[in-house]
Amino acid sequence: MRLESLNRSQLSLGFLLGWTDILNKYRRSVIGPFWLTISMGVMISCIGLVFGGVFKTPMVDFLPFLTAGLILWTFVVGTINEGCFCFISSETLIKQLPIPFFVFVIRVVWRNLLLLAHQIVILPVVLVMMGSNISLTTFLAIPAIILVVLFLSSLVFFFAIFCARYRDLSQIVSNVLQVAFYLTPIIWMPSLLPERLGAVILDWNPFYHLIELLRAPLLSSAPSFTSWLVVGAITILSWCLTLLLFARVKHRIAYWL
Amino acid sequence: MASIQFIQAEVNIPIFNAHNRSLKNRLMHIASGGKLSADTSGHVVVRALHGLNFSFREGDRVGLIGHNGAGKSTLLRVLCGVYAPTQGKVLRQGSVSSLIDVSLGIDHEATGRENIYLRGAFLGLSKKEINACLGKIIAFSELGEFIDLPVRTYSSGMHLRLAFSVSTVIQPEILLMDEWLSVGDEGFKQKAEARLTEIVESTKILVIASHSRDLVLKTCNRVLWLEHGMIKMDGEPDEVCAAYFG
User: Fold this and answer.
1) Which of B23, B26, B122 has the CB atom closest to A97's CB atom?
2) What are φ and ψ of residue B13, in 5° steps?
3) pLDDT at position B42, please?
4) What is the per-residue pLDDT for A117?
5) pLDDT, tens digit, 9 for 90 and up, residues B36-93
6) Strand, helix or coil at B209?
7) Which of residues 160-219 of B touch A (CB under 8 A)?
8) Where are the domain boundaries for CATH 3.40.50.300 in chain B?
9) Residue A167: which of B21, B77, B82 has the nearest Cβ?
10) How many domains does one find in chain A?
11) Given this model, what pLDDT does residue B33 score?
């Protein structure tokens, strides 16, 4: 049952649940999740004004960079943070029905992807306003988002298991992500870093590669080969770890909830 | 072929307090060689089911009786695959479905129609299968135009009628129940009763937990009496009921 592989209707259950979560944001609110888009827009304008001034970066470069980066970061962080509560928040369901655990992982990832789709609409507006060129390279974002979603799914799965057992881990995760936000070039541009520091903060920062893999094509440049390599490698590594962990504890997760 | 076999099955449920749920304390524990939290290192474990050996075959109508906390609900959870036995083995063949909580997964903000799809998906039905029996479900629930209103606007009777109508479209080989379901006003009750009886009769194995002597005597052909997670008695309904209910 729960331990066997997913069949098609179970797979679609995950998507249906994620979709229902989004629908619920629309109920009794005409624009629903677009409220998040609006607040994102306000935040981008403010950060753009302040930090664009502080770093003396030309708006034409900085604003598209900031917009893409902040939206993608919100997606990555939102997914991981919600992943921590993935099984905990579905406790009643898990304890009553033998639904495969991965269904709940699909729910979280799909819900956040749909939210991303709501927020990304800001980007073309900013690109047009800044008169940026849009090229075919943008299509590289498609394989990039697939790879990123694969990676995030494993991370959600991993933290969902771990947080079911150790409830304070979610705090640690959100703290680490908060720190990572400042270490990753999102509100500051990598070109501002002195070269030697940049080599450390950027090359060894998986979040940089994760964001850059998607941000670069959205801003019409190809992501570096290193970024593909790093994200590909951490995806494989993280899936291996997650599946090892899951194989060890799958019978016990229901008892932890 | 539907069958269920328990071989020396045990269920031990760990009870966590805030202390051993904490990763920090766990790390401190490792770092300090266990001295810092020596008193809290032993996990408290509740032995919910102990050394269960039995098998259910096709045609079995099993009643589970026992006092509160005897392990009936835990056993139902093992039967439906939510809990894996911590020791021993449970072998199961056949599709399992439970009518324990028919409202499970119903979203109060969503409309009745949306909830049919949602609840149907929880029962393992595909969208196509639900589309095929959507009309039947709506007709059975007698909700009429209310089907397109959010469930939060329903009375509790309407809510149950909807949940019951969706949950009973499936025909599982193994059916699990916790007490008999009784839904709605007089008119609906009879209809629901007929539908439920039909499902119970067509299922290959029925397991029903109950505190009611009449129900057990009426529906079951075998009774398991659980006490402290162990089988106290297993046999004909007349005998076991006589011993249990006195």
Assistant:
1) B122
2) -100, 115
3) 59
4) 93
5) 444 444 567 888 888 888 889 988 899 998 888 888 888 999 998 889 898 888 998 8
6) strand
7) none
8) 3-94+208-245
9) B21
10) 1
11) 46
